[in-house]
Model the fold of this input.
Amino acid sequence: MADSKRDYYEVLGVSKTATDDEIKKAYRQTAKKYHPDMNPGDKEAEAKFKEASEAYAILSDAEKRRQYDQFGHAAFEQGGAGGAGGFDFSGMDMGDIFGDIFGDLFGGGRRSRGNTGPQKGANVRTGIRITFNEAVFGTEKELDLNLKDKCDTCSGSGAKPGTQSETCSKCGGKGQVVYTQQSLFGMVRNVQACPDCRGTGKIIKEKCPDCYGNGYVTKRKKIQVTVPAGIDHGQSIRIRGKGEPGVNGGEQGDLLVEVAVSSHPIFQRQEYDIYSTAPMSFTQAALGGDVRISTVDGDVLYTIKPGTQTDTKIRLRGKGVPTLRNKDVRGDHYVTLVVQVPSKLTSEQKELLEKYAEASGERNDDGGDKNDKGGKGKKSKFFGK
Done:
């Protein structure tokens, strides 16, 4: 009886104003929860699965949903019970429900439909390696690749010149076939790509002698690649129309060139900023002066203040990497200054440093280190042997 059935909207947990996407999402969640494969031997779960599938079969169909909203379950009572729970599923393309929603449960993925219309060709991927500076300022590269191109002999049809392809007899040119099988709900229709024509709807009886019916040939081609300034490691450049040929008159795919950037001995990059270290002598650090700093634009002089400490960080504005959107807008270059201590000193340099040490109170009058315990006058190894 109609009165014994739960409301279809209640079964799926949606409102009567729910959209098609909301109904489908609700059914996906409910059906996965109660699917027999997930609940083997559970009769209650099986009954709820049937109930949810019946609700979805009605509410996912615009006309049946309109009838249900107007007459309720009574709209489908006439003619007796059939399929599951009083509704006849045998006339429905349940393959659409299972193909879209339960492909992952049944392990076969979504059902494949033939497509006899124009289809874009597949993209081709390759890679190039460039230097750090080429990534910063951009460059031009040439690739030598084997690429598929439309066969000139048959103009991409795959058929021998003077002949034509024929309509596939198995699918009638539709590119897809329908299989009917018995299921939990009665007879279920499953739509798949035609195995004879591989979904094209055409059969080539006499194949082109040059491309052997493929419609394309492989050629060695030189491709010019413009690498934009600011590109980073792992990013790709898309060259349109240089991929594989399209199907049934579709446009050619694209060539995707992934860029690998070699490391630099001095510079490191983070997004559009550059980081490096620069040496300064201890006299420069103490007295101040101009320090030479290497950048991607060449060496620059930076004036430091007297008393600059090691690990002091400075910022060179606009000396970083250009942005991809606007090469005139650049990041910054951050430099860490490091005091460089000489490993060898002349006698004159050593004498001057010893006088400085005495004047600053770092050494005793007898030449010993003021910090040495016992005042034995042992010389610091910092200033030589």
About this structure: The chain has five domains: 2-106, 119-161+208-263, 166-203, 268-340, 347-383.
